[in-house]
Design a protein that fits this description.
alpha/beta; TIM Barrel; eight-stranded parallel beta barrel; 10 strands; 45% helix
């Protein structure tokens, strides 16, 4: 199963960190932006080129430190087809450097629409008896709150490719409790119901580390709930956002790992990407700053 691949990479680098590639144009250092604008003009094309150069620099700086990267599709979709083409290139480049790629797409649809999404992001599109891949991520994020119908098509696509998915369970945003903490008639919180449904859907797909191909998104900003979910979902791999910029700490995220230290990966996006903004060198050291931030995060998580 694909979470075996991810866990292997985590162990190889002794680092349970995934670096977000959520590059808005204002996150890109000025010298990269100006060079791109000089060549392509101020606009979509110039911004796409600047973000591409930024992504390449980040990937080159991080590929021997972190096991995975997580591009958030929204920051590419807002640049139209050129942004999405650049996302496809970014995924391919990251994979060429040995990184596990989690496409943060948070899709949540059913039936043939979900199947089409799954083909685009995971298994490839069937055309005249052949299959053609485009984004070809290793893993995607999903919103499963439409029920099993919104998860199963992705797992079907992923299973044939040794890929996987992370499903939203208890998210890190302040408003998550408005729905996810509501109690059902049997006293369970909605996030517990979601987590148990998710694990049951993927039952039987456990790999060598004991995790199914359907992981869960569990926010670092809710450490008590993470601890509860880890006990409740022993076969579920966790993606943990909220560390750093959103207030989550290493002490908070420790509850996401099982007693062997397996089964979770912690995300940092701005904390790594934008580390250059704190060095006073105008972004000329953005790659070095990102690398140093990733090393500091690794050491913090392992301390």
């Amino acid at each position: 199963m694909s979470f075996d691949v991810l866990q292997d990479k985590i162990l190889e680098k002794n680092n349970p960190t995934v670096a977000g590639l959520d590059a808005r144009i204002e996150y890109v250092p000025q010298h990269i932006r100006q060079a791109a604008y000089a060549q392509y003009g101020v606009g979509i094309k110039g911004a796409v080129e600047a973000i591409w150069q930024f992504n390449v620099g980040l990937i080159d700086a991080l590929c021997d430190i972190v096991p995975a990267v997580k591009p958030q599709a929204a920051y590419y979709e807002n640049l139209g087809w050129q942004g999405m083409e650049m996302l496809e290139r970014t995924i391919a480049y990251a994979k060429s450097k040995g990184l596990f790629v989690i496409a943060d797409i948070k899709r949540g649809d059913i039936g043939s629409t979900a199947t089409a999404y799954a083909e685009g992001w995971l298994s490839g599109a069937p055309i005249e008896g052949q299959v053609f891949k485009s984004f070809d991520a290793d893993c995607v994020t999903l919103n499963g709150y439409m029920g099993s119908d919104s998860i199963k098509p992705f797992l079907k696509a992923a299973q044939g490719e040794d890929k996987c998915a992370f499903v939203l369970v208890k998210t890190s945003n302040p408003g998550s409790g408005e729905l996810q903490d509501v109690k059902t008639a049997d006293g369970r919180a909605i996030y517990e119901v979601m987590g148990q449904l998710n694990e049951s859907i993927a039952a039987g797909t456990e790999g060598k580390y004991g995790f199914t191909m359907a992981g869960a998104v569990t926010g670092a900003t809710y450490p008590q709930q993470i601890q509860q979910l880890r006990a409740l979902l022993p076969h579920t791999f966790f993606l943990v956002p909220g560390y750093g910029a959103q207030g989550g700490t290493a002490a908070d995220v420790k509850f996401a790992f099982n007693d062997k230290g397996h089964g979770a990966i912690v995300n940092s996006s701005r904390g790594i990407m934008c580390a250059w903004q704190k060095t006073g060198k105008d972004g000329l050291d953005f790659a070095e700053a990102a690398r140093n931030a990733a090393i500091a995060m690794r050491d913090d998580l392992l301390s």
